[in-house]
Structure prediction request, 275 residues.
Amino acid sequence: MIEILKAILFGIVEGVTEWLPVSSTGHIILLDEFIFLKGSDEFKSMFDVVIQLGAILAVIVLFFQKLNPFAPSKSKGEKKQTWNLWFKVIAAIIPSGVVGVLLDDWMDAHLHNGIVVSIALIVYGIAFVLVERKNNGKHLRMVDDVHKIDYKTALLIGAFQCLSLVPGTSRSGSTILGAIMLGVGRSAGAEFSFFMAIPTMLGASAIKGLKFVLSGVGITSMEIAVLITGCVVSFIVSLFVIKALMDYVRRHSFSAFGVYRIVLGIVVLAYFLIF
Prediction:
């Protein structure tokens, strides 16, 4: 029962932090430092990634109409527009997909620790504050519709996503920040980031799942229950967080998240250096 309660907490943290530019993986790693989840090392490595499937399902549910090229209510032109959006999303995930596959084992061995997470939180927190401060008060012509993002911009946003392979960076944070720097509005950038998450996390989960199977380590009934619980909770929480974030970015900048990252990073770094 205790492990199920832990899984609920992990699911809540994943559902909240997956979409906010504060790094879900970083928060999960930090949470595991203080609330130890029982299970084999192979299971926990897989759990930290596969738990994101629940969050991804929330995106599919919330944006199903926009993402569905087969919707009967769409005209021929709208269906073509939806297919083009998917092609741009696939193009955008290629850079991080290639780098992620090549460096996955190395990153697990060398980067999944509190020190790396805290430094990444601080560095990219500062970047958020600086970018938002630079754009503050300027009447810039930004791309305000996700369909208007061209292939070149999509690929460049995908290049920014490579930064998120470092725990503590934030996948949504790096892509949204990159989008803003490339002239895409916060709302359109956030949507495109959410859509990129679908194939990105499906691929990452498939890789982690395959590695777990190939490791030969069995999975217990409790571990299955923990995994399912975490996914379900992250799905439910994500439904509310995504709606709230989309409403927030229409009226506010990301500076507050940058400050949060800096403060949390300093506290965590101090903890690991002292203890």
